[in-house]
Structure formats: C-alpha cells, structure tokens
Amino acid sequence: FTLQQDLIYALEHEGFELYLQPIVNIEDDSVNAAEALIRWHHPKQGLLLPADFIPLAIELGVITEIGWWVLRKVCQTISLWKKEGIWKLDYISININAKQLIKEDFTERFFAQLNAYDIDTKDIKIEITETSLINNFELTQQVIHELQQRGIKCIIDDFGTGYSSLSYLKKLSFSVLKIDREFIFDLENNIANETLIRMIVAIAKQFNYKIVVEGIEKLEQKEIIKNIDAHVSYQGFLVSKPLPINDFEEKFIEKE
Ligand code: G
Ligand code: G
Ligand code: MN
Ligand code: NA
To answer: Which residues are within 5 Å of ligand 3 (an ion), measured at CB?
Structure first.
C-alpha cells in the first residue's frame, strides 16, 4: 500500500487520534483553552506527526475530510465534557486548511456540525496559517468574515513566518494572533527576537487582537514574554506537550 491509500483507509477506520495542548494564561499558568492537533497511528510506521502526512493530505485534497473528522471529534469531546459538568475551557481551537475553508459548503456544514452536538459558537475557534491565506486571499477573507459575523472567532496561526504583509491585519477579521515559535526559540540569547515580539504585540493590540505566544520551553523565555505583556496567553512544552484527550482531561480539567 502507498501512504496515499493508507491515508484514505485511516479516515474510514478511525486511524487518527486527536491530541490537545493547553493554552494558558501567562500571569498564573491557569489553563484557559486548548489546541487540537492530529496524530496518525500508522499500522506499520507507528505514531506519525502532522509533518509526516499533512502536506500529502493537502496535495491529495484529503485534508478537507481530515478537517471534518477533527471538528466532529472536538464537538464530541466538548459535548461529553458538558454532560459531565467538567467543560471549563474558554475554547478549543482547530487547524483548518484554507483549501477546506473555501469549499462552497464550508460554513453550512460547519454550523450544521456544531448544531448536531449542541455546541456554542464561542466554544470553538478556527486557526488558519498565515501562509495558507495567500492563494485565495479574497475568498478566504470573505469566509473568515462570515464566520466572525456568526460568532466563530478566527486565529491567525504561525504569525510572522509567512510573507506576512502587515496590511493583512486591517483587511482580515481575525480575533487572535498566534506568534510563531520561531521568535521564541533562542529568545533568551537573542535581543532581536525580543524586539520583534515587542513590535508584533504592539501592532496586534492596536488592532484589538488577543495574543497567543507559541513554543515557550523555558522559564526564562516565559519571564521575558511576561515582561513584554502580562496579558497574553501561551502554549509550550514548559507547560505541556500535546496530550491524548484522556491524559489532557486527567491533568488539566478540574473536577469537584
Ligand atoms: O502537532 P504538531 O504538534 O506536530 O503539529 C504540527 C503542525 O501540523 C501544526 O503546525 C499544525 O498547523 C498542523 N496540524 C496539526 N493538526 C492539524 C489538523 O488537524 N489539521 C491541519 N490542517 N493541520 C494540523
Ligand atoms: O498549528 P501549529 O503550528 O501552531 O501547531 C503547534 C505546533 O507546535 C505543534 O507541532 C506542537 O507540537 C508544537 N509545539 C507546541 N509547543 C512547543 C514547544 O514548546 N516547543 C516546540 N519545539 N514545539 C512546540
Ligand atoms: Mn495551530
Ligand atoms: Na503555529
């Protein structure tokens, strides 16, 4: 079998698993949200990370069906946690490829899925990478605008690494900006990165974006960011790697 055939088989036979990584408040490390990240249990190659198969899935167009699978899984999880009375997160974010986003039936199918599980629009946010916006800028912009109008907040992901034009920030209706971990890696030794982060934070605030900083691994890095702005949220191995849903629940969901 080719990887391509395996990918299609996995979609039909629950070959994927969803992991969650906590998104925390930098002031007190309280967990306020989570990002959903997909993993693939390949029958021969073992656990595969997105880097091993997402590019192929995009090329084959299977990314759209993967995206729907992820949304359904996230809806099921939120719905279950609500029934158990343990849903306390502000939101779970999902990564949606622009190819899926601009399909004609996207918004209709998206809201139908939320309705089917009785999920509020504020419970889910959509992450779109800066790079994937570029191809169909006008259309992508329209869909994001419609989603935001209907209560789904959108996150611009991996900010600062694409061919980012700052004019995006005023043209597109995003609510949250995620600063790419490239700026955090080596932050404690690199004053230039600190300067860039300061500038991105200042611009983001000007346009009323909430900020998530990605890839904090060390306490020193966290302290530098907290000094820049004590109101951002962050994600990083310092708090936790992405975890299987049950492990995330055990570790980060309070039960009383
Ligand atoms: O999971 P990692 O922890 O290795 O994720 C690597 C990259 O893969 C992330 O930057 C993310 O954008 C992408 N990715 C992870 N899960 C998904 C998914 O469900 N859908 C899409 N489109 N991309 C994903
Ligand atoms: O969609 P996106 O690119 O934002 O996905 C987040 C990616 O970043 C995932 O691959 C996740 O595993 C990874 N990640 C999250 N926190 C850290 C971190 O502290 N260090 C490193 N190296 N990677 C991280
Ligand atoms: Mn992301
Ligand atoms: Na990112």
So the answer is: 95, 127, 157
Task: Output the CA 78–ligand 3 centroid distance in Å.
Answer: 19
Atom of ligand 1 nearest to the CA of 129: 12
Q: Are strands 243-244 and 46-48 parallel, antiparallel or unpaired?
A: unpaired
135, 98 Cβ separation under 8 angstroms: yes
Tokens of 45: 């190659």
| ipTM of this predicted structure | 0.95
- Domain residue ranges of the chain, discontinuous segments joined by +: 3-252
Mean pLDDT, consecutive 10-residue stretches, the chain (256 aa), reads: 89 95 97 98 95 94 96 98 97 96 97 98 96 87 95 94 77 92 94 95 93 98 97 98 98 89
Q: Which of 206, 151, 152, 197 is nearest to 178 (CA)?
A: 197
CA–CA gap between residue 55 and residue 208 (Å, rounded): 32
Whole-prediction pTM: 0.97
Determine the topology of domain 3-252 in CATH. TIM Barrel (3.20.20)
Ligand 2 and 235: CB distance under 6 A: yes
Which residue has a Cα nearest atom 20 of ligand 2?
215
The helix (run of H) or strand (run of E) holding residue 32 is strand 31-42
